[in-house]
Amino acid sequence: MKTIEIIYEDKNVLVINKPSGLLVHEEKQGSAEETVVSWFIQKYPDAKGVGEPQFDMQGNLIERSGVVHRLDKGTSGVLILAKNQPAYEHLKAQFHDRLAHKEYHAIVYGYFKAIKGRIEAPIGRSKSDPRKRSAFKTAIGTLRDAVTDWELITQNAHFAHVRLLPKTGRTHQLRAHLTSIVHPIVGDWLYASKEQSESTQEVPRILLHAYALTIALPEGEEKKFSTELPSEFTDFITKKINKKETP
Q1: Among residues 10, 46, 56, 72, which one is catalytic?
Q2: pLDDT computed for residue 178 by the predictor
Q3: Considering the entire predicted model, what is its pTM?
Q4: How many CB atoms lie within 10 A of CB 92?
Q5: Of 34, 63, 97, which residue constitutes the final position of a domain?
């Protein structure tokens, strides 16, 4: 099991720094792969069953105790879990009503001509790859409204470090939105082009990190939880971005 850092806990919630490469919950019943949830219910057995039932593609119940929101397997960063059902209901309402504020950091391909912007494009499924979501006009299936604000932190001719402030929480939202403006995330082999992936094949993971979460806890206090950028980010910034070049 990858090391899971506990950022904060009380009787109602647990906030962790999820490592890259670890699933939040199993994708099908009986999977032997370790997950955040398997670690969580081993550490807090009373939390087993907290949440709402969810089923795999075969209709089997999957274990997702405590999960209020999720991060993709490759994404690292702040994740909050509910220890009891009232806490789950409270946190779920915070996310549903868009009262929880999330901040991500990403390293992306390409050069930005502006310092900030908004991506407002509905997300559906990719016509060419069922594993992917799409914010292009060719997207198929149910289209869900999605909004992402972005701010440039630093860049050179080839790569940029950006802050991402999603206003909605769609599956693969940041990955699909950034791809739609021709700035896929470095290390994202699913969305980046073959040429882009080959140019950064030494990068061991997708460079997307859930940097901070601001949310009102069940007892009413609003808190902001944040983490440091992982070493993969700081190394890439030092070696690749801080070598300034003009496009």
Answers
A1: 72
A2: 98
A3: 0.94
A4: 17
A5: 97
